[in-house]
Amino acid sequence: MSSKDKKGRIKAVKSMFDLLPPESGRVQSLLNSAVDIFRRYGYGQIATPIVEYTPLFARSIGDATDIVEKEMYTFDDRDGRSLTLRPEGTAGAVRSYVEHAVSKREPITRWFYAGPMFRHERAQRGRYRQFRQIGAEIFGVPGPAADAELLMMLWDFFSELGLEGLKLHLNSIGCGVCRPVHRKALVDYLTPQKEKLCEDCERRYTDNPLRVLDCKKEGCRALSEEAPKTLDSLCGDCSEHWTGLVKDLDHYALPHCVDHRLVRGLDYYNRTTFELICTGGLLGSQNTIAGGGRYDGLVEQLGGPSTPAVGFAMGVDRVLLALPPEKPELPSVCDVFIVARGEEARLAGLTIAQSLRKHGLAVQSDPRGTSVKSQMKRADRLDARIAIILGDREIEENIATLRRLTDSEQQDVPRDSLEERVLAALKG
Ligand code: HAM
To answer: Of 5, 16, 162, 244, which shows the fewest CB atoms inside 10 Å?
Structure first.
């Protein structure tokens, strides 16, 4: 694919998109709702760099994963160091947690982040090479109460947004003690049927057989249906963690379905794994709107003290596709439009606009000095609720014409009570 259009003009990079109004308003509104729910659950915001040294991702996400093997944007900087555009947020968050010795300052840390991630995947609706994630991580809680709290928060968030057709898929993939037991059972099951595996899974069968369970190809799916389940091999501790999690979710009345194929595509997970699938809106096959799980070994693996952790990330672009276009609700871009004719009226309009903006209103005018008719048209196009009209008569009598654009009712209002009347009209 060419980097230029037919006229030779340079285009945006494939599968990386500009964000323009009004869509940018939806993204911001979603972010505001997320910030609000994170505040209510006690999370602090972090921002880590968009690039990290490449080995961070290889070491945390795993050398043999699709992300590290095929999807990373990796390049040498001018000092010859290999850098990578972050494909996800957990690795950077953990690096930061270790680098700033956060565990010494507080026993439990709740962080959230939002920003662009980069993966060179096959482009399609809901799957982009630059996409946005909002993610959250809890450090320092070993028990399932943290997993349940996180899921509750995620569920609350989507419910408050009005997202419909949501399903929570849940699994446990065990730990270093029980995973080898499951791995052996799985390999024993797959070996006599090896020729039925797809090309990718033939390789996975040797490198990481668990990932065969996750393959979407029909032949592999048929095989994985009957395959030994991770839940059947859990050790005592993992089993207890799982039972505790299910108990808490039942207590919260949070519906979930056990999905034994849910092993996730990143190597750092242990015990709990989950995904939220949404069947509504414009989402096609890319209908996983959020995913996450526990990663109790990662902090230590990256040089920190042994610290249990659990987290998730949601795909902002996918959530917006799943929501109806009128959601999340956008703040108004124009509550009041000021229509002015003549220089004196223009100046009076500026003063009025400034004082209304101090009350939090969105106020616009047309600084080009066009006709009253065209200014009124502009007010209509912007969906303004009120127009304040200032012409020769209004200036002479020290009044303004207040016109409610919803029903075209208008009144003369003395200038000194204008602010009050506008605020009252907008409330009504
Ligand atoms: P992930 O499942 O790779 O997990 O990504 C989380 C979410 O990001 C997905 O469920 C999806 O909604 C969205 N997403 C992923 N790739 C794309 C893409 N190419 N285009 C659009 N959206 C996409 C993680 O990233 C983990 N760091 C989550 C986590 C946090 N686990 C523990 N803590």
So the answer is: 5
Q: Which CATH architecture has domain 336-427?
A: 3-Layer(aba) Sandwich (3.40)
Buried b (16+ CB within 10 A) or exposed e, 251-287: eeebebeebbbbbbebbbbbbbbbbbbbeebebeebb
Average pLDDT, rounded, for the chain: 95
Distance of CA 312 to the CA centre of its chain: 10
Q: Is the CB of 270 under 6 A from ligand 1?
A: no
Give the position, in ligand 1's atom list, of the atom nearest the Cα of 292. 31
- Name the CATH architecture for the domain at 23-178+234-322: 2-Layer Sandwich (3.30)
Q: Whose CA is nearest to atom 25 of ligand 1?
A: 88
Domains of the chain: which residue ranges? Answer: 23-178+234-322, 336-427
Percent of the chain with pLDDT over 90: 90
Q: Which tens digits make up the pLDDT trace of 29-48?
A: 999 999 999 999 999 999 99
Residue 214: CB within 6 Å of ligand 1?
no
Is-contact 167 258, C-beta < 8 A? Answer: no
Query: pLDDT tens digits, residue range 241-260?
Result: 999 999 999 999 999 999 99
Nearest-Å Rg of the Cα atoms of the chain is 28
Asked if 309 and 212 touch (Cβ cutoff 8 Å), the reply is no
Element (H, E) at 273: strand 270-278
* Both structure tokens of 166: 């949501």
Residue nearest to atom 16 of ligand 1 (CA): 127
Q: Does ligand 1 come within 6 angstroms of the Cβ of 209?
A: no
In which band, very low, low, confident or very high, does the pLDDT at 230 lie, cut at 50, 70 and 90?
very high
Residue 212 to residue 198: CA distance in whole angstroms = 9
The pTM of the full predicted model, rounded to 2 decimals, is: 0.94
126 token code pair: 């809901």
Q: Helix, strand or coil for residue 35?
A: helix
